[in-house]
Amino acid sequence: ARAAAAAQSTGPGRTADGHGIPLLANIGGPKDLPAALENGAEGVGLYRTEFLFLDRADAPGHEEQVAAYRTVLEAFPGGRVVVRTLDAGADKPLEFLPAAAEEPNPALGERGLRMMRRLPETLDAQLSALAEAERDTGAYLQVMAPMVTDAEDAAWFAAAAAKAGIQHAGVMIEVPAAALRARHIATHADFFSIGTNDLTQYACAADRETAGLGRFQDPWQPAVLDLVAASASSTAEAGRSCGVCGEAAADPLLACVLTGLGVTSLSMGASALPLVRAALARVELAQCRAAAEAARAARGPEEARKAAAEQLPGLA
Ligand code: PEP
Ligand code: MG
């Protein structure tokens, strides 16, 4: 059967034995909403707001931000919408934000939340636009900080969100230090979402912008799976949800492995939703767990993929 024939474009994400894994969309702005809705997204797991700030000489004003955020929130009445606050720097440079200095290693420099800590008025303006956009929509807004490194970062972000009147603030796990210390970060975060693109880059010390680093840029690296497992188990102990919103979630086989590792939702580019939904519907949670264990026992990403596929026949 053609892959498309196995795709499933509606219904909540769940395994064959009924374990629910909400399937959410990654979006860059309102223009991505039609595809998210057509492909049955249960909400937005990652709204990359930096697209609103790209390629312009000034930051978007309050009204412009409120309008964009409200359009997204209104598309999912009653559903959750996770809005990531501005993730500038490194692979996402912005013209109008003053750089701290020439950085020899931008990926290891002042990016994401680090930049907002130097420019808090930019973050405060965004949070206040988000708070206003949420008003009267009945949507469930969750704001999320990128590039959080430690509990101190998370506490700082939670305080900024609370000051803006936003109830739900969480963090991305993209830095290995945060994955290892998720238990401590959980005191200051309502939810977690693992960014496997950056987590792979930092776990394997392999620049995501440099071509040809091969297996070190592969989220199937067992070390990355170990970090996901550590994050999922310690956040669960703390009573917090822990999704994945990196590209890894869009790979149907890896989505099943992530489910087996204990992640609680999967967010991806909308076009990947039907195949991931169909894959989950064909496997049981115990099989996902066996596949996750087999993948973690492998020596490298190729071996991990093969080991998982053996536990999940018919998916690869
Ligand atoms: C990630 O790092 O996995 C992620 C989802 O964020 P971005 O790709 O926007 O850095
Ligand atoms: Mg990232």
What order do the helices and strands come in, and which of them pair?
Layout: H1 3-6, E1 23-27, H2 33-38, E2 43-48, H3 62-75, E3 80-84, H4 113-118, H5 120-134, E4 140-145, H6 151-163, E5 169-173, H7 176-180, H8 182-185, E6 191-194, H9 196-203, H10 222-237, E7 241-244, H11 252-261, E8 266-269, H12 273-281, H13 285-296, H14 301-311
Parallel strand pairs: 1-2, 1-8, 2-3, 3-4, 4-5, 5-6, 6-7
Helix pairs in contact: 3-5, 11-12, 11-13, 13-14
This protein binds phosphoenolpyruvate and magnesium ion (MG).
The site of magnesium ion has 5 residues, from helix 9.
Tags for this model:
316 residues; alpha/beta; 8 strands; 42% helix; globular; disordered N terminus; binds phosphoenolpyruvate; binds magnesium ion; EC 2.7.3.9; kinase; magnesium; pyruvate
Q: How would you explain this protein's 3D organization?
A:
This is Phosphoenolpyruvate-protein phosphotransferase. Belongs to the PEP-utilizing enzyme family. Keywords: Cytoplasm, Kinase, Magnesium, Metal-binding, Phosphotransferase system, Pyruvate, Sugar transport, Transferase, Transport. It is found in: Cytoplasm. With 316 residues, this protein is of the alpha/beta class. The chain is 42% helix and 12% strand. It is built from 14 helices and eight strands. It has an eight-stranded parallel sheet. α3 links the parallel β2 and β3. α3 packs across α5, α11 packs across α12 and α13 packs antiparallel against α14. The two termini are 13 Å apart. The N terminus is likely disordered. Bound molecules: phosphoenolpyruvate and magnesium ion (MG). The site of magnesium ion has 5 residues, from α9.
